[in-house]
Amino acid sequence: MLDTLEKLLPSDFPAIRRTHPQTLQVNLGYRCNQQCLHCHVAAGPNRIEVMTADTVDLVVETLRRLSFDTLDLTGGAPELNPEFRRLVEQTRALGVRVIDRCNLTILHEANQEDLDAFLAANAVELVASLPCYLAENVNRQRGKGVFDLSIDALRKLNARGYGDPDSGLRLNLVYNPQGPSLPPPQSGLEADYRKVLADDYGIRFNQLLALANLPIQRFGSTLLSLGQFDDYMTLLKQAHRDENLTGVMCRSMISVDWQGYLYDCDFNQMLGLGLRADTVLRPHLRDLPRLALADSPIMVADHCYGCTAGQGSSCSGALLKGA
Question: Which residues of the chain fall below pLDDT 50?
């Protein structure tokens, strides 16, 4: 796989600073039951990186001691970590909101047959990847049969109350482009998703999140191999909007890798660009209580333009209201 980091630094991306961290985003490991072209983690079935029970204990202790209001779980497929359910239960017992970034097909994996019931019982908010409402597009990006498995998983979740506005069980879907282009306006695309999924499959959901593909890891390597990397970076830079800078996810989040080391965001984590701290060379979760993070500088590189281009892109979708 081709490395993109040397093409992302040095960068002229505007300097930004952190506000007060509210979300602890934890990568539980890079193992996944899928191997998608757009994946910025380069996750897959053969990855062996996994967060240990001791580090999961440290995550829980961090949430107990510090003022984070949200635990955002990602991977790989976070549910494949043997400690996933324990972490969810202990975090919910603290009254902390839990988000699971789910690829949907995980509900069909061995030993995950009751995953939908577990998630609903613990009121876990789901951010579920469904990169298109058309079967051929999803299968092209994620593999043969993935669309049908995803629809079946959504029906299971709907049967548990997910997507029902009165249930309190949130189900947000995620769109990302098929190639080196920006997402279309999120509001219009959400209307299309809502109509097709309801009319053709009886599926309901709460919100669509439109995310841009960032030029790192597997997607970045593909751009390099196809000779499209420079053109994509030009697209991102030309579409940059300063008004998106106030809403980028890194300003209110701390990212944690599977070993417990700290980053400004999941994308920086994949590039090895660690969180900067004056007192610690390579900050770890165990250092977090003594780090002064409010108003601290955020490590940036040219991939950050993927979050500020056009309508903007973050873990919660488009940044511009009405986009």
Answer: none
